[in-house]
């Protein structure tokens, strides 16, 4: 099955899963809130995100590799963090698909589980990709996208504001105002345009909501009319490859989006890394003291 068809299938699965779980909180069993260490004996499933994400495929592999008697719940980034928050509030056992950067590591005491088999790979980078021909059609936008690069502290500042209730566009605008020196590096040598349109695709992970809205704000500051489109990973890559969207700053490599990159690498333009030090894996609250490795989930 190609990536586009896979994305359609997992998209339907995500909708059905969200409808079934309702408030997103019924994802972990157990009621051990007496202050003792919480183990994994009551776990029935791993709480995941959208089915098209590479971390979900890696988690299916981890379940097989480690012989885990656990299901994998397809949901969304928002539903996953809601379930995590609910479990922590009741000090229940829970394991989720996790990635860094993400605001949840600042909000809760969490830990990655050791992965001795290396299923989730090592450090990842986030890349900027464009459709073929964007450099000729919109050279000023392409230059900004090519220059875009920031750090975990930068991204966290935007994510925290959004998590605390600020609109993503407002959070992005505030960050741009407060980081004029860095933004000036992204726009160095870029001429003003007059309302030309540029479209950005992104997957609705907190990190990509932050980065895409920041790039949107900067492109608008040089005169572009920017349209954002949120979609699952498979659709995002397909849209760039088929020229339906102009660019994305949300390509996780080498592992998370490996399958999509292999499918489309000859139809897209890689402008390089915009964020270094990303990571994926399985995450649990630190109060699960006896669970430190994926092997402990058996």
Automatic annotation (TrEMBL):
GO terms for biological process: choline transport; glycine betaine transport. The keyword Membrane applies. Residues 1-19 form the signal peptide. Pfam families: OpuAC. GO terms for cellular component: ATP-binding cassette (ABC) transporter complex. InterPro entries: ABC_Gly_betaine_transp_sub-bd. The keyword Lipoprotein does not apply. Residues 43-178, 197-298 form the ABC-type glycine betaine transport system substrate-binding domain. PROSITE patterns: PROKAR_LIPOPROTEIN. GO terms for molecular function: amine transmembrane transporter activity; carnitine transmembrane transporter activity. It comes from the Bacteria. It is found in: Cell membrane. Keywords: Cell membrane, Membrane, Signal, Transport. This is Glycine/betaine ABC transporter. The lineage of its organism: Bacteria, Bacillati, Bacillota, Bacilli, Bacillales.
């Amino acid at each position: 099955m190609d990536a586009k068809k896979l994305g359609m299938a997992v998209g339907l699965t995500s909708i059905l899963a969200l409808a079934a779980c309702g408030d997103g909180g019924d994802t972990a069993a157990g009621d051990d809130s007496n202050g003792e260490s919480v183990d994994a004996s009551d776990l029935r499933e791993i709480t995941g995100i959208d089915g098209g994400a590479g971390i979900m495929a890696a988690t299916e592999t981890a379940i097989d590799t480690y012989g885990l008697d656990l299901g994998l719940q397809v949901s969304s980034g928002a539903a996953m963090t809601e379930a995590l928050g609910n479990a922590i509030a009741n000090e229940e056992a829970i394991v989720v698909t996790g990635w860094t950067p993400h605001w949840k590591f600042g909000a809760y005491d969490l830990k990655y589980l050791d992965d001795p088999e290396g299923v989730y790979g090592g450090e990842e980078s986030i890349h900027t990709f464009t459709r073929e021909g964007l450099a000729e059609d919109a050279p000023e936008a392409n230059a900004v996208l090519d220059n875009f690069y920031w750090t975990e502290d930068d991204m966290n500042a935007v994510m925290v504001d959004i998590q605390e209730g600020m609109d993503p566009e407002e959070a992005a605008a505030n960050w741009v105002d407060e980081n004029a020196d860095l933004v000036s590096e992204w726009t160095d040598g870029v001429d003003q345009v007059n309302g030309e349109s540029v479209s950005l695709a992104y997957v609705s992970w907190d990190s990509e909501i932050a980065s895409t809205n920041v790039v949107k704000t900067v492109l608008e500051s040089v005169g572009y009319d920017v349209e954002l489109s949120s979609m699952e990973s498979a659709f995002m890559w397909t849209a760039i490859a088929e020229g339906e969207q102009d660019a994305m700053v949300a390509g996780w490599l080498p592992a998370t989006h490996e399958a999509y990159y292999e499918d489309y690498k000859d139809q897209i333009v890689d402008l390089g890394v915009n964020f270094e030090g990303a990571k994926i894996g399985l995450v649990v609250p630190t109060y699960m003291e006896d669970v430190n490795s994926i092997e402990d989930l058996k």
